[in-house]
Write a structure and sequence with these properties.
Sig_transdc_resp-reg_C-effctor, DNA-binding, single chain, phosphorelay response regulator activity, alpha/beta, 41% helix, phosphoprotein, elongated, 9 helices, 5-stranded parallel beta sheet, transcription cis-regulatory region binding
């Protein structure tokens, strides 16, 4: 099993690397969140150990980035002991939380438990999704178009796009998107989505008025069609 340890404490990195390798794990390390994202995209670990208080990209942002494209287990190992920190990490997508200083045997037991529940990282959706001349890098939260470079998206436009591209070919209801982004109290505010889908199409579709990839399912929601075949066959735009 391949594990990525993200922690800015060099002593903890060294101790965990030695311990885990001695127990048969393949170990990758990163001393900050940005390096961890790069390592994750390049090596696709099966499990992550993440500290919260890291420079450049903190642990919460790292977990959110990972959850954009992988369901590999995340175990937070942090010196923050408050319940608010635990809740925030779990809400961001972490699977378990251990506080520092930790008991090594307990940590190893939690790793074994997460490893038994995990699915192979190779089964995750890749960190990059391509449609037409557009590339969406889910790990780096970056959208580019061939010949045009990076495409600027607002944070909400990114959230809408991310939800759709993580479910290729599947209907995603308006209520699902509204609830994930704005909360359950806004599940009837469909005007929000029409606005953001219109903006995304202007930025990403070859013909915004005749979308091929970001499709509307009338009365239900939206569908991401990565190869554009549904629109070519006459599906509603």
């Amino acid at each position: 099993m391949k594990i990525l340890i993200a922690d800015d404490d060099a002593q903890i990195l060294r101790a965990l690397r030695i311990t885990l390798r001695a127990r048969g794990y393949t170990v990758l390390t990163a001393s900050d969140g940005a390096e961890a994202i790069a390592q994750a995209a390049a090596h696709r670990p099966d499990l992550y150990l993440v500290d919260l208080g890291m420079p450049r990209v903190d642990g919460i942002a790292l977990i959110q980035s990972l959850r954009g494209w992988t369901q590999a287990p995340v175990l937070v190992v942090s010196g923050r002991t408050g319940s608010d920190d635990t809740v925030e990490a779990l809400d961001a997508g972490a699977d378990d939380y251990v506080t520092k200083p930790f008991d090594l045997e307990e940590l190893l037991a939690r790793l074994r438990a997460l490893g038994r529940r995990s699915t192979p990282a190779e089964g995750d959706e890749g960190p990059t999704v391509t449609f037409g001349d557009v590339t969406v890098d889910l790990a780096r939260r970056l959208v580019t178009r061939a010949g045009a470079g990076a495409v600027h998206l607002t944070p909400t436009e990114w959230q809408v796009l991310e939800i759709l591209v993580r479910h290729p070919g599947r209907l995603v209801t308006r209520q699902t998107i509204l609830s994930e982004i704005w909360g359950a109290t806004h599940v009837t505010s469909s005007g929000y989505l029409r606005l953001y889908l219109s903006q995304l199409r202007k930025k990403l579709e070859p013909e915004p008025a005749r979308p091929r990839y970001l499709l509307t399912e009338q009365g239900m929601g939206y569908r991401f069609d990565p190869d554009g075949s549904a629109a070519a066959a006459g599906a509603p735009g």
